[in-house]
Amino acid sequence: MEIGTYSAPSCICPVNQTGGQCTAGFFCPSGSPSPKPCTGGYYCGTAGLAAESGQCYGGYYCMSGAQVPDPTDGTTGGLCPVGHYCPNGTETAQECLAGTYQNGTGKTKAGDCEPCTPGYYCSSSGLAQPTGKCAAGYYCPAGQTNMQPSNYSCTPGHYCPEGSGAEIECPSGQYQNATGQSTCKICDAGYYCDGILHNGVDTPESCQRGHYCPAGTRTAAEFPCPAGTYNNNTNSMALSACVDCDPGKYCGSIGLALPTGYCDSGYFCIKKASIPNPTDGTTGNICPEGSYCNPGSYESVECPSGTYNPTRGIGYLENCTDCEGGVFCSSPGLNAPVGNCSAGYYCISRATKANPTDNITGNVCPAGHYCPIGTGPAPLPCPHGKYTSITVQSQCYDCVMGKYCVDGINQVPCPQGFYCPTGTGQDWRPCPSGTYGSSTGFQAENQCTTCPARQYCGTTNLTAPSGLCDAGYYCKSGSDSSMPSNATKGDGGPCPIGHFCEQGTQDPTPCPLGTFGNQTLLRSAAECHSCTPGYYCDATGLTEPVGLCSEGFYCLGGSNSSNPPVRDASGGPCPAGKYCENGTSTPPECPSGTFQILEQKASCDPCPAGYYCLQGSATNTPCPEGYYCPQGTQFAHQYPCPNGTFNTFTTRANIDACVLCPAGKYCPSEGLADPAGFCSGGWYCTLGSWTDKPSILGNESGSDCHCPAQSIGGKCLAGTFCPNGSSIPTQCTGGYYCETDELLAVTGPCLAGYYCSSGSTMSNPVNETFGDICPKGHYCPLASQSAIPCPEGTFSDAYANENETNCLPCTAGMYCAGIGRALPNGNCTEGWFCPQGSTQPQPTSNKCLAGHECPEGSGAETPCTSGFYQPDVGMGACEICPAGKYCDQNEAITEQQSGVGEASHGVVTPKTCPAGFYCPAGTKTSGENPCPIGTYSNTTGISAENQCIKCDPGYYCHQPNMLAPAGKCNAGFHCTLSATSPSPTGNGSECEQGTFCIQGSSIPTDCPKGMFGSAAQLTSLTDCTFCTPGKYCDSTGLQQPAGNCLAGYYCSNASEEAAPVGKAYGDICPVGHYCPEQSYAPTACAAGTYQPFTGRTNVTACLACDPGSYCNATGQAQVTGDCSAGFYCILGATNNAPTDGIMGNICPIGSKCPLGSATHIFCPNGTYTNHTGASECYVCPAGSFCTSRDSAEPCPRGYYCPEGTGADIIPCPAGTYNPVMSLTQLSECTKCDGGKYCLLPGQDNYAGQCNAGYYCTSGVNTATPNSVNNTGVGGKCPTGYYCPTGSSHPLPCAAGTYSESEGKSACITCPASFYCTQNTTSYALYPCPAGYYCPVGTTHDRQYPCPKGYYNPVNGQDSSTDCLQCPGGKYCETDGLSTPTGDCAGWLVLYRSLIPENANRRSQHY
Questions:
Q1: Beta strands in 56-104 (DSSP E)
Q2: 860, 866, 1044, 1220: which has the fewest C-beta neighbours closer than 10 Å?
Q3: Who contacts 141 (Cβ-Cβ below 8 Å, separation ≥6)?
Q4: Of 1245, 1143, 1244, which Cα lies nearest the Cα of 1197?
Q5: How far is CA 884 from CA 155, 157, 897, in A?
Q6: What are the φ and ψ backbone dihedral angles of 609, each rounded to 5 degrees?
Q7: How many Å apart are CA 1267 and CA 1144, to the nearest integer?
Q8: Given pLDDT bands bounded at 50, 70 and 90, which one contains residue 681?
Q9: CA neighbours closer than 13 Å in the CB half-sphere of residue 1200
Q10: Can you tell me the mean pLDDT for 273-298?
Q11: What is the CA radius of gyration of the chain?
């Protein structure tokens, strides 16, 4: 120890000193005679040290004698400067290397030095910012040290303007084949430069076939030849290189090297067609109507005669439409038939005239058929309902009304139950449902009888109604269902609501009073509903109750009044004590709390306030003491005063009558008149308390109280104190605590390390509302009412601090801004470093130097290492050395790139990769990566192997590190990019077959169109071979001909296309000829054929000479002429009068052959020929018919035959007959005899006798004529007549008989009580008169009189016993008396007196 005061190390100690304690900044090892200054890079922080305290902090440098690890005095040390970095234990700051820079202080490592900014270079160490921009033609990735870095010379396919951080790819349409360039070149015409595909173009590529490439072309497909053109050459420079598409072909898309294909069938392609089916009329068109177009056509061909084509776009001859039945086609090239077949004729198919008779293309209309204009392909049979019996007819005749026709000849009466309008066949019209009918021969529906009321006619064809209408339905008229509805006929339907319908109802019956019907189909009154309880039904025919029962009344059910006056089974007036609202069915009692003393009321009155009313009450009762009764109270104790209140009065109406218990007192139960007593000591009581020791409101569990007050008091709790007589508790004083309940004063002060706010219950509260442990970042002395914050620049992460010394300095690399910090605010900002005690994240003097890195949370800056650089100050990390550059920290240290005099250095500026080498990102030295064999490079600064220039097309590079290609590729070979040999097998090859290659070729040259290459390694155009005759070479580069010349064309020699037209090397096949596939010359069609079209492909195109024509030479385009009259030419005839039976023949017997006949035509119906070689047929004579074609035969019995009759012989009509042959006209047919009928036409005798009940006078065609639908004179036997079998006329009924209806074969004997004169039609018209009697068969009214002495007073008597004796006193003087003649005069007549004075009878005079 020093005896005196030791104050300086240079002090010369006085004799009275023996040594001393080492002071801060020094250390004294054992046995030290004097203090040692603290070692550089270390610090000695306290006195009395035997060794250094520790290393200097990173980001700082410590020279000799440093007392702290982060000195800032500049004498013993300082903060690491910009351009430098200082690791832990730094004595002298280290400079950032060249290629980096660092513009912040306090950096701790080389990585804190930032690589030089891309596009810039950092030429020395210790830099705070980059030296300058990178030179044009070079690019500077991060960390460069040279403005022209050799490793980063701009590579081919790229350009680098001044300040480039990376080389830029040449855009599409430009290229660059040299190194070190600042711009790109425009792509040459005939080539394209696709920068996207190649990431920068260094060599333009040849324009592809199907395209052209003007200067600046960007992609292979940018300028395609337009649709309709093609181009089979490469390196084309303009649109003019695109060739129009060939005739008969189309070029269907852009960019074609060859035509897409042949024109579609149904279209022809003229030139430059872009689709296989053009319609613009310029490049081609759809095949027109009347023509056809084979595939590959360049023009259309007409459809031949006998056919037509109505549509456009057909592709083949067979698509031409044969002329259909009913029409004819007389010339070629038609788009529709010329016209319709004539009336009376029919056309089968391919007819060439309107009235054919050859039976091949058509014929005359036969009997039983009709042929209107345009009939075909067959004659039309007469439909049902029509008839005809002759030939050459254009229409049939309608069947007459009341009859039907089904065989096309006869008319038959309409059967019973049906009606037959004009033209009826098998479709008899039934009388419809809802009607009936019992007679035959009806002509119209209105003759059917409408179904009567109460009944229905349920089906068609009824002769009487079906039956009665069903119960639940009504039928008025014309009903066709027993259950009529809207879906049925007639006036009827389901029984409507409100009504019932018994069986056979005509009009629905309404439901009676007191009932209603809400459903249809009710069948009786019993099914009507009784009126609903609570409702009334006061009318008949109701569908629902009329309405609700009236107020004051009740309706039990079945009520017919809304207010029944007396009580009975259906309801009545509402009784007293009850109430009846609208619609009441049973009167309810007045509810509790109401009363009613009157009858016939709809409601009850509420019980008045101050009173209560029991259920059914008619009076009210006063409310008792201790309770209150608002209006409508139901019983006496319904509303008691609640606990905490009291009340001493009666008839109180509301709770306001209940008074709160006064403060200091309590009222413990309901209904009290006075409080029970005073509140207990140690508690506080407020107004309305119901206990002497009140609980906190909501915690009361000892009663069922109803709290009228907001609070009634409570116990004085811990945290408060309550002197005697308190009405409220007192809060415990701040800084102190009140530990237990019922205290009179505070317990004591709050402990140090804690704070107590008002109301504390403990001396060391933790996480309480009244206090807490002293929080982090604060300190709390004894009796603290609140925590005190730590000052700025310090922090404390502990609880319960008792004084300010517990606050710590802020940690190095972090900052503590503001007071009361439990932890530092955060890390120091990236690019800065923060020493101990920092208050900001970006200290002004501590920004990281260039060539260094300061990641977030740095306490010092760090220099960048080799392979990395940092050209900027204030950066958080070093950047990887950029591609095309290298970063060497050793060079940076030597060059002091982070700044002269800085403590540390990292790479600030990357250096350019040297020529012949490439430097990828992160390169540490200049000579790591040489360019490989097959490439060359004469520039610096390239970054990747692919930037070494590939050996140029047409040249080869056989060793590595070449500065230029070795020489040209050999003839017969081609060299692509990167070729390594003059005769390459890779990156090039021998010139392939179909091409030739001169010396220095980069791509083979195709042999041109019209030629092909037969071997590999051809060296010139003369080595290519001309295309073989019959074949074509339509594109360049062929190894053999492309194919055979197309059928329909011929290719002579060196043909450039498969279908040449008008070319020296070939043409389309001419008319009269055909050209199969691979033709080198056309082939002529043989004699007997012709060929009118160009472009035919085979011998089948040679058409056999048309039927009716002949062809006598080869190679003909058309027929020679028509076949001679009297002969026919079938097909392929070589002369005009053939007789071989193959090409044709002489016209046979029974046929005709006019000029130009294709076949012999059979003589039509009604004509004939009887020799060969005829050109026309003879008309059949009258009285004969001609069907065998070669002779005339006599007309048969039952028929007649006018001139020209064939198979259509005409029958004598029904009602006539013919017993002889050879009749010529209708008038010669015989009418049917009297009493006979002739049913069918064409008969040679009558059919039979007229039926009994009918008469046939003359010409009748039925056994049952009705004078309406029969022929001739005849009919049904009329009333009053009879007609036995075979009657020619009706016979009158004799006297004593009658006939009351038509169609009788015998008369009926007159019945008794009636008489019948001659021709009587009804005996009922002739009752026997009074005074007479008429037995069976009486012939007149006076035939049988009552004799004298008798009389008959009534009509219709049939016996003599019906005559009465003349009564006494009377006389009956004559026969036939209906009453006595008179009274006897002066005589007593007993009976049957004949005269007034009868002497012969017993009498008495008086």
A1: 60-62, 77-79, 84-85, 94-95, 100-101
A2: 1220
A3: 118, 152, 165, 166, 881, 882, 883, 884, 885, 910, 921, 943
A4: 1244
A5: 10, 15, 20
A6: -60, 140
A7: 62
A8: low
A9: 15
A10: 92
A11: 69
Distance CA(1233)–CA(739), nearest Å, equals 154
Closest CA to 1185 of 627, 367, 410: 367
Q: In angstroms, rounded to a whole number, what is the distance separating the alpha carbons of residues 685 and 220?
A: 102
User: Strands 967-968 and 973-975: what pairing?
Assistant: unpaired
Residue with tokens 């030597």: 894
CB 995 within 8 A of CB 1036: no
As a whole number of angstroms, the distance between CA 771 and CA 779 comes to 14
What per-residue confidence (pLDDT) applies to 703? 44
Pairing of strands 108-109, 861-863: parallel
How confident is the model over 459-473, as a mean pLDDT?
Answer: 89
**Distances in Å between the alpha carbon of 233 and those of 214, 749, 1012, 1026?**
15, 108, 15, 18
The CB-side HSE value for 529 (13 A sphere, CA atoms) comes to 18
pTM over 0.70: no
- At 1129, which helix (H) or strand (E)? strand 1127-1129
- Assign 110 to helix, strand or coil: helix
pLDDT bin (cut points 50, 70, 90) of residue 1405 is very low
Cα separation values, 564 from 545, 580, 1061, Å: 15, 13, 116
Other CB atoms within 10 Å distance of the CB of residue 664: 17
Q: Tokens 């003007």 belong to which residue? A: 214
Q: Cα–Cα distance between 1366 and 160 in angstroms, integer?
A: 165
Q: Is residue 475 classed as helix, strand or coil in its secondary structure?
A: strand
Distance CA 664, CA 526 (A): 83
Q: What is the mean pLDDT of residues 987-991?
A: 88
Q: Which residue has the tokens 């007396």?
A: 566
Contact 1280, 1293 (CB under 8 A): yes
CA distance 1363 to 862: 167
Closest CA to 1287 of 1239, 1233, 1323: 1233
pLDDT of residue 695: 75
Q: Report whether pLDDT(722) > 80.
A: no
pLDDT tens for residues 213-241?
999 999 999 999 999 999 988 899 999 99
Structure tokens at 1302: 């038509």
CB-hemisphere CA count at 13 Å for 100?
55
Q: Which amino acid is at 1321?
A: T
CA dihedral 683, 685, 691, 695 (to 10 degrees): -60
Question: What CA–CA distances, in Å, run from 660 to 663, 669, 726, 1053?
Answer: 9, 12, 20, 134
Task: Please answer whether residues 126 and 873 qualify as being in contact, where contact means their C-beta atoms are separated by less than 8 angstroms.
Answer: no
Q: Where are the beta strands (DSSP E) in 1066-1118?
A: 1066-1068, 1073-1074, 1083-1084, 1089-1090, 1103-1104, 1109-1110
Which string of b and e fits 703-740 if b means at least 16 CB within 10 Å? eebeebbeebbbbbbbbbbbeeebeebbebbbbbbbee
Taking 50 as the threshold, does the pLDDT of residue 618 lie above it? yes
pLDDT at 643 over 70: yes
pLDDT band at 1; cut points 50, 70, 90: very low
The answer to which of 74-83, 940-949, 1375-1384 has the lowest mean pLDDT is 940-949
The amino acid occupying position 7 is S
pLDDT, residue 475, reads 93
Looking at the DSSP bridge assignments, the partners of residue 826 are 815
Q: Tell me the three state secondary structure of residue 720.
A: strand
Tens digit of each residue's pLDDT (9 = 90 or more) over 1362-1395: 999 999 889 998 999 999 999 886 544 444 444 4
The CA–CA distances, whole Å, from 180 to 120, 176, 327, 914, 1145 equal: 17, 10, 88, 12, 98
* DSSP H or E segment with residue 894: helix 889-895
